Each structure stands twice: as C-alpha cells, then as structure tokens.
C-alpha cells in the first residue's frame, strides 16, 4: 500500500486463520492482491525497535513477510540474529486449526522473544514475535513466513528497573552512551515517559514532607495560642486610683461627722441636714 493509497479509519486486525489461509498462502503461491497491506522485509537485518517505521501499516502490531535464512542449508535452523541481539523461541510450535474445518491444520505458530546481546548471556526485552508458517508437510515454492511484531505490556516496576540499569551503564561507560534506538528499546515509543514521570518513592517522600510541614505549622499555631492564654489580663484601672473602704456611720453620727469620716462623701454638698 503506497503513501498515495490511504484508507482513513482503517484498522488491520486479522485473525490467525486469515493470516495463514489468506495472506501467507497467497504470498507463497504467488497470488498477489491489488492492495498489498503486508510488506516483504528481512526483519533480521533490523532491530525490533526499527521495525514499526518499516511496516506498511500498524499501530501496536506490525506484519511482515520474511524469507527464512537457515544456518546450515535447508536442514538447519533459521538464523534469527540481528545486529544488537537475537530472537529466541519460547515453548513449542502451536498448530492452527481451521474454524470451518476442525480437522484441517492450516499452519503453525511459533512465539519468539528478542534478547539484547549474544546468546546465552543476552538480556530479555519486551519485544515479541509470532511467526506463522505453512504446515511442514506442504511442498512450497517459496520458503516464506509471516511475522507479527508487537511489544508486550510492561509494568511500571520493570520500567524503573530498566531506567536504573541504564543509569548504571552510563556511569560505568560514560564514553559509550546508549543510542536513541537503544533507549527506545528500554521504554518504547509509546511508553517513552521515563524522563517525565516520578517514581512512587519520590511522590511518597513529597507527601510525607507536606504532612510534616502541616504538623509543624499546627504545632506553632497551638504554641502561639497557649502563649496568648497564659498572658495576665490587664487589670481595670480606675481614674481615681485605689479608694479606701466605704465607712458607714454609726447610729447617732450626724451628717457633718459622716462627711468628715468618709472620703466618698467629702466632695458632696448636703442640701439639708440628715440625721441618722
């Protein structure tokens, strides 16, 4: 499918039976379609993180027709080594049965995982390949397989471990930093957020600091309130200062004597003489 032939909204999600019984079978026997969705590429000449850009179509899954290159002629195992690593098979091949004809085996499926480095000391990545091939008992004019490439979902813990490993590698080998393609292999094009997200430990530490600051502020305000309550209240100051105790006249004391005895009444001018 050329760039001038684009189908907006088109999604390519074929079933395993469709991949084998239609796309691969037509390719092997030379029955080409007017619209070629799957391209022909020797994927082992490229590392997996470069393959999405070489695929004709795909968002999370990328498909290729791949020629089988064997190590020792037709009887040897196919060579699956790339420049930066190798593809390693996991488990045994699985037979794909036709849904319409349950007794007919239409092909085989092999699952492989990409390892960085060289065997047997390579490091496992999250790149996965499903290799579909025609049944072994078929005589085929072309030794071609159909490969589906995708990335396995990676947990946050694994991403943190890979970021820590990358930092250690940069410290031990400062003169040979990882290339951009190798960095993409660690975190992926869709998950390239190692430089933007914060680790849970950092977030927890920040939250703990906020709580501690809040507690310290609360303690400071409480101490201020206690200090204010402990300060003695200002006593009421009378304008005339302290006054002597009011003295009441005894029976038989006249008003003039009362004025001379009580300072409260010294400033009063009697209108009439009052007798007790």
Q: Overview of this structure, please?
A:
- It is a single chain.
- With 276 residues, the protein is an alpha+beta fold.
- Helices cover 28% and strands 18% of the residues.
- The chain is built from 5 helices and 7 strands.
- Strands 1, 2, 3, 4, 5, 6 and 7 form a 7-stranded mixed sheet that branches.
- The protein is elongated and about 100 Å long.
- Residues 216-231 have a biased composition (Basic and acidic residues).
- Residues 215-241 are annotated as: Disordered.
- Its main location: nucleus.
- What do we call the CATH topology of the largest domain? Metal Binding Protein, Guanine Nucleotide Exchange Factor, Chain A
State the CATH class of the largest domain.
Answer: Mainly Beta
Secondary-structure element series = HEEEEEEEHHHH
Rg from Cα: 46 Å
Please state the oligomeric state of the protein chains shown.
single chain
Distance between the termini: 129 Å
Number of domains: 3
Percentage of residues in strands: 15-25%
Mean pLDDT: 75
Helix content: 25-40%
Number of E-type strands: 7
**What form results from the Cα inertia axes?**
elongated
Region (Disordered): 215-241
Biased composition (Basic and acidic residues): 216-231
Domain NAC: 6-152
Subcellular location: Nucleus
């Amino acid at each position: 499918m050329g760039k001038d032939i684009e189908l907006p909204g088109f999604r390519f999600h074929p079933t395993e039976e469709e991949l084998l019984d239609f796309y691969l079978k037509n390719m092997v026997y030379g029955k080409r379609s007017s619209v070629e969705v799957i391209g022909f590429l020797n994927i082992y000449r490229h590392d997996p993180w470069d393959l999405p850009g070489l695929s004709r179509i795909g968002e999370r899954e990328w498909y290729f027709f791949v020629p089988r290159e064997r190590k020792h002629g037709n009887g040897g195992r196919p060579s699956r080594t790339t420049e930066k690593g190798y593809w390693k098979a996991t488990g045994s091949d699985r037979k794909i049965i036709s849904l319409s004809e349950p007794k007919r085996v239409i092909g085989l499926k092999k699952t492989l995982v990409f390892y960085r480095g060289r065997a047997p000391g390579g490091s496992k990545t999250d790149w996965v390949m499903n290799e579909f091939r025609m049944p072994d008992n078929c005589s085929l004019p072309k030794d071609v397989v159909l490969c589906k490439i995708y990335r396995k979902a990676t947990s946050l813990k694994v991403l943190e471990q890979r970021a820590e490993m990358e930092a250690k590698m940069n410290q031990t080998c400062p003169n040979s930093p990882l290339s951009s393609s190798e960095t993409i292999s660690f975190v992926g094009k869709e998950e390239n957020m190692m430089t933007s997200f914060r680790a849970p430990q950092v977030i927890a530490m920040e939250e703990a600091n906020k709580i501690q600051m809040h507690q310290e502020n609360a303690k400071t305000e409480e101490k201020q309130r206690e200090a204010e309550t402990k300060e003695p209240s200002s006593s009421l100051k009378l304008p005339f200062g302290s006054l002597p105790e009011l003295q009441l006249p005894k029976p038989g004391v006249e008003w003039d004597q009362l004025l001379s005895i009580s300072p409260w009444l010294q400033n009063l001018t009697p209108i009439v003489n009052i007798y007790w």
